[in-house]
Structures are given as C-alpha cells and as structure tokens.
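Subject: NADH-dependent oxidoreductase

B.,
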Amino acid sequence: WAGYNSKPENSEKSYAELFREILDDKTKLLIVGGIFGEDTATDAIENYADLIAVARGTLIDPNFAKKITEGKGDTILHKISPETVEYSHLTPGLLEAFSREDSLGLPPLPGGETIRHLHTGKYDI
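Prediction pasted inline below.
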C-alpha cells in the first residue's frame, strides 16, 4: 500500500480512479493514506477524490489543516522527531505504539525510528 494514489497490481489506474468510474455523481469519494503535506493533500483532492482523510499527518502536526487554510502549508511538519513529540501532543498510548519497532502493526510514522528510545514498554503485553 503506497497511499492515496495506489494502484492494483497490473493496473494503470489508481483505486480511486477505478471507484470513481462506478460511483454515481451524488456519491462522494473519500481516500486516505500517505498525505503528509499541502502538496499531497492538494494532489489528492484535485486528482483523486472529493474528500481526504489525513490521519498520521495530523498526528505529526495537529495544525495540519489550519496551516493550509492560513496559507502556511510550507510549515507543516512532515515527520516525527524527539524534538517535535511535545508539539504533536501524542497520547501516552500513541507514543508507546509509534515508538515501538513494529508500531503495534500500525503504519509507521515518518521519522518514527528517531523516537524508538522513548518507548517505555508500559503498555507491552
């Protein structure tokens, strides 16, 4: 899975493009994955879908959407680091998950390898 513009194997079209072909005009298409900056958010909306979900991007920078709407998209943080953890306001559980080597099976955060030393094991089973 490479993100919002992923394509099935042996296909020239993305999943979003394939779904768009079969959806009626009243049905909105929502996509998710790999959106970490204004450039990818803009590309996703302009070329792939009506709505986008920005999950890990907003975990890294909780002001993701605000920065874009205020014309400050170039200041969005694109990866987590020890210096940005406090700004990101990750809950203790999310910090534990994303600081694990396996991210508890979640897609890793960009820069996640830099916060491995913050893992305490508090929630490990």
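The beta strands are 30-32, 51-53.

T.
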